[in-house]
Each structure stands twice: as C-alpha cells, then as structure tokens.
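Protocol step 4 of 6: record predicted structures for both targets in the notebook before any analysis. Target 1:
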Amino acid sequence: MPTTALTHRVRVLAAPGDRHAEILTPAALDFVGKLAAAFGARRLDLMKERRRQALRLAGGAPLDFSPATAAVRADPSWRVAPPAPGLTDRRVEITGPPDRRMAVHALNSGAHVWMADFEDATAPTWENVVGGQLVLLDAIERRIDFTGEDGKEYRLADRDRLATIVVRPRGWHLVEEHLEFDGAPVPASLVDFGLYFFHCARRQIDAGHGPYFYLPKLENRYEARLWNDVFLLAQELLGIPRGTVRATVLIETITAAFEMEEILHELREHSSGLNAGRWDYLFSLIKTFGHRTDFLLPDRAKVTMTAPFMRAYTELLVRTCHKRGAHAIGGMAAQVPSKDPVAHEAALAKVRLDKEREAEDGFDGSWVAHPGLVPVCREVFDGVLGDLPDQIHRTRDDVEVTPADLLSVRRISGPPTREGMRTNIAVALGYFAAWMRGQGAVALDGLMEDAATAEIARVQIWQWVRHRLIDRETVVGLLEEELDALGAAYPWAPVEEVRTLFERNALSGELPLFFTPDAYARHLVRHAEPRS
C-alpha cells in the first residue's frame, strides 16, 4: 500500500472554531490526506458497484449466498482475533453522539462499552464533527468534567469503572465537505476514523485499551476489505502493531446479511464481531426491494423482532459469529425512561422482553440508548451469562437459514393504518427539523430516534404511495397537519425546508438512497458556513 509523501495538502474549508487547532493539526491533516490518497479512488469504485448491484436486484436478479466464497464458509479452521482489552465482556453497550454531556453519562453509566456515534446519532455540522473529536480526546485525557447550566457537576468515575470507547465513523457513502483533498471532498469515513486514530490510538493503548470501531452501512465483503486495508495502513503509518485495531461490523443492509462470514473473514485479524443493526436493516430491505409487492411492510410498530425474516437474520448472525469465535451484539433498545410511573414500567417491560429474547438466542450483549436502561439490560444478560463474559460456546448449530428465510417478508405483510402513516410522517418531520438544527439524536414520543428510524419512516411512506396502499393526497393532508403541529411545538423549526426535504425524500418518483446527503447540502446552504 502506498505510503509516499503527499503532493497535495488537505485544505480546511471552514472558519476556525474554538480549540479546532488541537484536532486539525498539520500532522493530523497529513495523516487523513494519506488515507484519502490511498483509498479515495477505491471507495468511489465500490460506491459505483453498490449502484450496479441495486440495479441488478431491482431488475430481478436473485439474492443468494455467493458460490464464489463457498470455500470460505465451508472452511472450519479460521477464527477472528481474540477479544481485545476492554472488549472481553460486552453484555451492555450504550450508544449516543460524542457530545460532552453524553460522554460523561455514557462512560459512567455502568455499560461495558460506549459507542460514540458520528453516524446516525450525529448531524454532521462542522462543529459537531470537530467537537466530537475534542470530546473523545478530552474523555481519554480525563478532562471531560463540566458544570451544567443548572449548576450540577458532571465528573468521570474511576477509570476501571468507565465504559470502553468504540467509535462509529460515518458510512462510505458520505463525504466531508469541509475538508478537501486534491480538489475533492474527503470521504467522511476517513475523516472520522483518521482524526480519532491519529490523536487517540496511542493514548488508548497506553490506557490499556485500543483504537476500536463500529463500521456502519457495509453492503459486501469488498467494503469490509477496504476497511481492513485502511486499518493496515493506519497502523503502519503510526507505528502501531498490526492487529491492534478492532472493528465490529453492523449488519444493517440486506446484502451484508448474505455475506456475514465473508465480512468476518476479510476483517478477521481486526474483527470484534457483528451487530444486528435492525432499524437500518429494515430501511435497507425497503430501499432494495420496495418496488416489489411481495416486500410490502405494515406499520413500523408491527414489524417486531419476532417476524420470521427478522428471526432468520438475527439467528444467522449469532450462529455465524460463534462459529468464528466472534461476539454477536444485539439491537438497540430505543425507549426513553418516562417520569410517568406507568409509562416508565411499560417501557422497561418492553426492553426486558427484547433483551430476554436476545440473551436466550445466544447474543453476547446488546445496545441501549439511555443510561436508565443499562440496569435492566445488565440484569437480563447477567441471568444468562453469570460469570462468563460471553456465550460464544453456544455455536447454534441448530440454526439453518436459507435465502428464502431471509427474504420472507410477505409472511407479515399488511396494509398501513392511518395512525401508522401519521406516526411515520411525524417522526420524519421531527427528526429532519432537529437534524437541520444540528441534533442527530432526538427523543420523540418516548423513543430515541436517529437517522435510521427517520429513514424507515420516509421510505415506508414512499413504498405505500408507490403501491397505492395510500394516495398522495392523504399523505399531503397529514403532512400539512403535522407541519402545523411541528411549527407550533418548535417555533425554531425551519418548516418550509423540512417540508421540501420530506417531499423530495418520501414523495418523489425515484427513491433517494439516503436523505442525509440532501439534508447535508441544505444545511450547508442554510448556514452558509464561512470558508477560509
């Protein structure tokens, strides 16, 4: 892999911010530039292949386990790397954006892992991107303590009680418009990964852990291979031993579900397992097959993890991970604890049932979105794991999953309800408004919503309109009502921009692959961020 000196520097196309110089040092930018030089063209090729694959599937090509990699799946000898320090026990993981308040709460929560999320839970304003890097640096240096506006002090607990930090960079499909290399925006994945790795990898090793990552939105083994090569070059450039990096891959696209073993194989010396990214998985399913009538989904609330196709996906994930000595991490519990005792108990009961199913199925841990859910998740997994750090010994050889099992959506198909339509519209609008304001995770009706749930909401509306399960006029009527409610509840909300974003991403003839690039471009124009 190339390690030659750069011929073009990375340029920062934004005005300096408070303490930005601590992150955007010449050496750090040079490091990001080396990654962009080595992998930028290959990333573009893989994005083109994503589009070609989408067109093939839309044209009726079957989705199946690849015969080209049958030998990898059949070979019983290979395993992923053993668990790294701080990742041995992962029974409770908490997720959230890398802001200062969240960092203290997450690290102190009692969870084993904090997934610091630059992707679905972060609106990628330049301040959020650089500020998030500063938060991680400060957390590792133990200078994250602060006093809130109410005078309450927030301080880190003793180091041995803190959650292990795992960073989720943005997906391969996104770029960072505020950094330019060789006249083009730098891939956002390489920005988030590169800045954190440059500043914090050695610090994390010295603290007894290491540079650990969650990898989002992968669609195939080639995208995993690209990440593995990024890790190899990054370790080489900074003189860090090969294999120090660990990465957990979110299986949150339907195509990746057919290549789980291949993805583990590509990353095996850097792998720390797979995660069932169930909300994005549903989004991917609709985005990939939404033009077909046999993939019509009912209201989001009715698509539970007990649906046959979701059971097939999660059981295959556990079997695949444990076959290869890897951790299998369960999905998000998005409930937000309520001050209403009845609502609070109802929310905890839902979380408990969800985590009991995961623990009984063989998962080694699971995600929560709020510190208040850590105790119930821990209690459930404690009851199954006891003193063991995982249940990798449960190889789930009883599980047999076919392509038809993964695609058996029609078994839960049903018409949408008016309440389901309204909920999807309200969630999309509320999230779009918060995202445009710079907030990537927002509590709506008792759930912590992020980009994944907003994506499900808008693609379901698109799918229902396309197949005439609802008419456009009904959607527009509900849209106007919910926009009025949004403006009344949040006077700051950019109602007209939110309307346009919804119409373009939920009511257009062709379904945009993601709403985030459109929203990002609108945010840049709206704020007209000054450039140096």
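Target 2:
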Amino acid sequence: MTRPALTIRMHADDNVAIVANDGGLPAGTVLPPGVPGAGLALRDKVPQGHKVALQNIAEGEVVRRYNVPIGYALKDISAGSWVHERLLQMPSARALEGLPMATVKPPVPEPLTGYTFEGYRNADGSVGTRNILAITTTVQCVAGVVTQAVRRIKAELLPLYPHVDDVIGLEHTYGCGVAIDAPDAIIPIRTLRNISLNPNFGGEVMVVSLGCEKLQPDRLLPPGSFPITDERDAALGPETVCLQAEEHVGFMSMLDHIVQSARPHLERLNARRRETLPASELVLGVQCGGSDAFSGVTANPAVGFCADLLVRAGATVMFSENTEVRDAVEQLTSRAATPEVAQAIVRELGWYDRYLDRGRVDRAANTTPGNKAGGLSNIAEKAMGSIIKSGTAPIAHVLAPGEKLRRDQRGLVYAATPASDFICGTLQLAAGMNLHVFTTGRGTPYGLAECPVVKVATRSDLARRWHDLMDINAGKIADGEATIEDLGWEMFHLLLDVASGRKKTWAEQWKLHNALGLFNPAPVT
C-alpha cells in the first residue's frame, strides 16, 4: 500500500519541512491535510530527508529549521520547491564572545531509582561492562607482532579462561617520528595512557614496546598512573615486553614472551565475576556518524531522552564532536551548570577554532557528501540535529581531549573531541566510557573492540536493509509507530541488558572493530 505523503517540520515557525517518505516524493505531489504544507503541490521531485519550502522565500531571506537560521536564500525559492545546499548561503559561525553563560536553570527532575545492571567492579572503584585483556603498545612499529601474539593468545589461552571476554591489541600510529616534547603532544600521550586504564580492562596493564621509540613505557605509564596489582608491579612498573631486548632471538621468541606474559593477567581477569550494580555506574558515550536529516528528528532525540533517563539515574553521559556543536554554542553555554563550566566550553571550542585556523580548514568541510545526500545542507543545520542527543540536563563537566573522568564527575559531560567517528570514539574510551551509542542515517559498520556499541538507525529503510547491523530502529518515530519517549525507554533497557552481557550488539557479534584514532595536533618531525 502506498504511504500518504508525509512531511515533518521541527518548529511551528520553520519555513521548510523534510519529506519523510521512502524514496521521496515526485513533482506534482499535493501534500495532504494534516501535514506541514498541506495543499501545496511540489514543484520538484524532493528526495527523502530533503527540505521542501512551505512558503515563498525571497532572495536573501532566512531559511529556518529548528527555529534557527540554517542559511539564506541565494535566489527566490517558490513554495513547494526542493531546498538544497546549492540554494543556501551558510550563516557565519557564532562568535565566542557575548554568549549566555549558565542562564538556563531547568527544574530538577525526579531521580530515577531501582535500575541495575551486572558489571565488573574494579580495584579503583570504576566499573566495566566487559572483562577484556588489552595489550597496550608504545609505538606502531610493534603492531604486526602484537597482532600475531593476540591471534595466538585467542587460539591457545582464551579457551582456558571462559570468564574473559576477549583479548585485544591497542594499535595506534603514535610513538615515534613525532615532536614528543611539543606542548600539544600531551593529547595523544594521555589518550593512550587513559585508554590503557579503561574500566573494561579490569585494571590489568600489559605493554609491548619496541625499545628505541620516543614514547618509552615509563613515559606512557609513569609510576602512580596505573593500578598496582602485585609487588612486582610496584617495583618494576607495568608488565612490559621489549622486542629489542637481547633475550629475544628470532620472531617466535618475541611471540612466546608476549603469550606467556599474558597468562597471569588472564588468570586474574578470569577470577572476576559480574555483580549487581546501580545504573549510576554506567559511563555512556554518544555519537553520530553517517548522519542525515532524520538524525535530528528520530534517533538523536531518542538518544537525548535516554540520556536524560541515565542522568536521572545518576549515570554519566558524554557527548562530543566540536565541529558538530560549534554552531549551537549558545545552547551549550546557556545549559552549563555553572559559569565556570560555560567558560570551559568556550575555552575548548576556542582552542579547536584556532587549531582549524592553523590548518586553514573551512568549518563547512564537516558536512560530507553523504550528509548532503541525506538532506543536511550545511554544518549549521547538522549542528541542530547533533546537539539534540545530549538531552536536556545541565552540562556538569567539560573534558579536554584525552582527559579521564574522575569518579566525582557524573551527569552530563561535554568531552571536547574532533567529529571524526573513530577519533571521537577513541577519546571517549580514554575518558572512561564503558558503553557506547552510535546513531546513523546513511549507515556505517562502525564498532569498537574495547566497548559495546549500540547502533541506532534513523530511518526504517536503513534498519530493514541493514537488519543485522542496526540494534534499534528509530525510524519508527517518523513512521508514526512509536514516540521519542518509547524509543528512549527501549534504548535505556537495551543498554542495561548490553552492559550486563545479557545481550550482544550486532557489532560485537560480527566483531566489527575500528582502529583507534589518535588526535595528534603536535607536529611530526
């Protein structure tokens, strides 16, 4: 049965709406009663997710969606016309001066109590949702050896330790050939250090070093930066295998050393058991990638509703992506819990502005060809849909790239990261994320070995086609089959099940794992 024409308008004052129908709508379609633009005949074929003008828009007039300017008409646009990026001049970025600072004081919601999950309590008080042995590397040069060693550990040892979920190598591109004493080198170094201490790794720290690299093990993990598991660790530092050590005679000697060194770590991890813990111990990272115009209509609002539930339950929720919130900066600073938090947001976004300026990067470059094909005309429009996934809670804390959450930093957190999917995910892992939600409209097989990733489709068409990659179909909101609240609660309960190990995400089942992506603004030598 052919579905009636459906358009979605985000605010009553918007002069555009998006087409919700699979495949879009042909020219000549008359919008039916009860939808925005009822009675209009479409002058153009309008693809799904793309905008249609609800009224005549004169050259130079503002085009409004989410009740904010997303552009200015480059020529007259007639009602019923397809409004795409080639017809719009993008607004200038909002200045970082004169912003509203901690001006929004929402009512304090009722706490959400009684929700629990089964997780792993670590010695430092943090909590993991998985029980993984991670082998840290100091330099990319050892990646091939570590890959072979991990393969052997999985084949020879892992079956002997049934309570260990996985063994992974933390491969990256840093460690040598870099200006390691440059001021910004602290970002990749602390990122690697803090990923090594992610709560899903149970406090076990094992390092493989080449030997001649600039990032020496004691610089990566200096005394006091990692948990002490026995007297040996206290005396010698983290368990380290150096491939250039004279004891290694041949490749197999290196592999044997790494495999044997893994045994005591696996034994300690295998002795751990899940225990019932309050939902307040969840540290959720939220992110979107392969976004489309539905991201800000279905999936991201549902994530935002779920984020509010988690914050009410005492959990921590991190949102990120500097360039995808920059054009909504006044929404961030006004929602800050204190003027100091608002100023920290300005500090981080200002630093990133200067970083982009050094590279002569146009902020418009953030909006990808796929974003535009999905109906997002520019970064101003994309920002409005991206920020919705943070929910409505006050922003309680701000983290610089690579920084780690303290135990007392709970609630909604802005973790300042680039928008690149795997770099954002890497930095959220460093911050202490133990669970991840990733929304997509165009589709992406993104996943992380270090942390479960719940994938949310913005459209039912994507959910149907990628039925064994998407965990939740938020397209049901646009289809009228569910509300934002329905999907938010569904996501909340799924997260508790995934955190408990009762359910595995599709990315976990297929072992879809993106490489770590370090943010390294320091120069290369």
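Step 5 preliminary note on target 2. The chain is about 30% helix and 15% strand. The radius of gyration is 24 Å.
Proceed to step 6 after PI sign-off.
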